[in-house]
Design brief:
Elements lengths: L4 E2 L7 E4 L8 E3 L2 E2 L9 E3 L8 E4 L2 E6 L8 E2 L4 E2 L26 E4 L13 E6 L5 H15 L8 E5 L15 H11 L10 E3 L7 H4 L10 E3 L5 H20 L5 E4 L4 E6 L10 H14 L3 E4 L9 H5 L5 H20 L10 H5 L5 H8 L8 E5 L10 E4 L5 H10 L4 E6 L12 E5 L2 H6 L6 E2 L10 H16 L6 H4 L16
Parallel strand pairs: 11-12, 11-13, 13-14, 16-17, 16-20, 17-19, 18-19, 20-21, 21-22
Antiparallel strand pairs: 1-2, 2-5, 3-4, 5-8, 6-7, 7-9, 10-15
Helix pairs in contact: 1-4, 2-10, 5-12
């Protein structure tokens, strides 16, 4: 009996195993497995001589290190990495798709933003910090706020401390210090925080309140400096008293029916496998196209996971300015990695490779599938806020726990997280929807995975069907009608602020 394999393009000379294949299994007409092939890993569809192209996604993902016999398992040890695409003078605006799938709805229920800009999906008291040194005191206060104050304010969803490992012992005037500072400043105005500003500082840090906030926002109603207070109890009381006043304001907020143009959705990959680019990511891409067609803003990210497909993204940039910003962000990251003497093939991770991804080129082709087909209207540096609506490339690290805070700072209200390995990831400030690539992963983690895209690989569902299912869930989660599993479990990762600047 033939085994199920997935071949993505007629020009591909490899396919992916939908289920484990044993040596001697008849895989397809005229194709017998030479050796055991794990699920999601590649099988050679033809003989591939040493030095010849290995093609998937109709893209050269590498070159054979030695002769590969038809029916053989192709893993990362058999593939030489190709050079990344050049960034100079990439053609732009050559693939601008305007015919996008129509969304089932074009409104949602959210919290209007008093500051203007994107609306909130949750009503949260956010407490920002200037430095890690205040975190211990703040955490004690937050625990008491949750136990003693929040029950009095049923329309407030929670309190979130914006803790981070920055602010002191840093080269505050270093060129790249602008990156973490910009991220932290943007987090002040996260739409889910309802326009209420609350900042806890220490008093001797390098990231001073004056550097952190504009002068008009520095006052006793918004800022607490712990070194100006008398002892621990006084510090905790000051935080709780200010929080109580902010909670009184937030309690008055109510959801309103809003257009999709008031919603920002963030897309991210984590723990990918070879099915991610076949099932989960294209489904997210279909949902993204629906959102954009309805007027929403969608951000996708992860520089190293897009670098080898940058020419495909450039073709979708609406103008030269967007293309140039895309190239500049990629070039900056190339230099950043070079300065750190990073092996380009350090990504994919061991888990990615176990899931069948041979190298970063293959991973990139699957990763950018989550962006759908919409034109790219803007490119953001880490932590920048969007100025356009539509599909946006937000340049961030690929690390799950660094990418999320960057998108959070850029104003996303819902985070969609695709996984092929089962990363138990979440954020306290926004709901996170998990989409898995395989049926087996959904069965393994039924109370972590929200949407299973696995049926696409087995032919039981289409990309459009799963994409529409995901779109509807995004709207329900944004509107507060449903909670994804990460939110139900209070499964929250720490905020890891991207800091390429030196620490002194």
């Amino acid at each position: 009996m033939s085994k199920i394999i997935v071949k993505l393009n007629v020009e591909d000379n490899v396919a992916v195993a939908v289920e484990p294949i044993k040596a001697g299994d008849r895989v397809a007409e005229g194709l017998v497995a030479v050796n055991d092939i794990p699920q999601a890993h590649k099988i050679a569809l033809v003989d591939i001589p040493a030095g010849q192209e290995i093609r998937r996604y109709n893209t050269i993902i590498g070159y054979a290190k030695e002769d590969i016999k038809k029916g053989s398992w192709i893993n990362q040890f058999m593939v030489n990495l190709p050079e990344p695409p050049a960034l100079n003078d990439m053609p732009y605006g050559t693939n601008l798709v305007t015919k996008l799938p129509e969304p089932p709805v074009k409104t949602w229920w959210g919290y209007r933003n008093p500051l203007g800009g994107p609306a909130g999906t949750r009503n949260i008291l956010g407490i920002s910090t200037t430095v890690q040194c205040v975190t211990g005191v703040l955490n004690v206060a937050v625990d008491r706020i949750r136990r003693e104050l929040l029950p009095k304010y049923p329309h407030v969803d929670g309190v979130v401390p914006v803790n981070h490992a920055y602010g002191c012992g840093v080269a505050i005037n270093a060129t790249e210090a602008k990156v973490p500072i910009r991220i932290l400043k943007s987090l002040l105005d996260q739409p889910n925080f309802g326009g209420e500003l609350m900042v806890v500082g220490l008093g001797c840090e390098k990231l001073t309140v004056e550097r952190f906030l504009p002068a008009e926002r520095i006052n006793k109603d918004n800022v607490i400096i712990l070194q100006e207070l008398q002892g621990f109890d006084s510090m905790v009381k000051a935080i709780m008293d200010m929080a109580d006043k902010k909670l009184q304001i937030l309690e008055k907020r109510r959801r309103e029916e809003l257009p999709l143009s008031d919603l920002i959705v963030g897309l991210q990959c984590g723990g990918s496998d070879a099915f991610s680019g076949v099932t989960a990511n294209p489904s997210a891409g279909y949902a993204a196209d629906m959102l954009v067609q309805g007027g929403a803003t969608v951000m996708f990210s992860e520089v190293t996971e897009a670098r080898d497909g940058v020419h495909l993204l450039a073709a979708r940039c609406v103008n030269k300015e967007v293309r140039d910003k895309l190239a500049a962000e990629m070039a900056w990251y190339d230099q950043y990695l070079q300065e750190g003497a990073v092996d380009r093939d350090a990504n994919p991770t061991p888990g990615n490779k176990k899931g069948g991804l041979a190298n970063i080129v293959e991973k990139a082709m699957g990763s950018i599938a989550k962006s759908g087909t919409s034109p790219i209207v803007e490119v953001l540096s880490p932590g920048e806020k969007p100025t356009k609506k539509g599909l946006i490339y937000a340049a961030t690290p690929s690390s799950d726990f660094a990418c999320g805070p960057c998108q959070l700072a850029s104003g996303m209200g819902v985070h969609v997280f695709m996984t092929g390995r089962g990363t138990p990831y979440g954020l306290a400030a926004v709901p996170v929807i998990k989409v898995c690539s395989r049926n087996e992963l959904k069965a393994q983690m039924p109370d972590i995975i929200d949407v299973n895209a696995g049926p696409i690989a087995t032919g039981e569902a289409t990309i459009a069907e799963i994409g529409t299912q995901l779109f509807n869930l995004i709207i329900d989660v944004a509107s507060g009608k449903k909670q994804p599993y990460a939110e139900q479990h209070k499964l929250y990762n720490d905020l890891c602020i991207f800091n390429p600047a030196p620490i002194t």
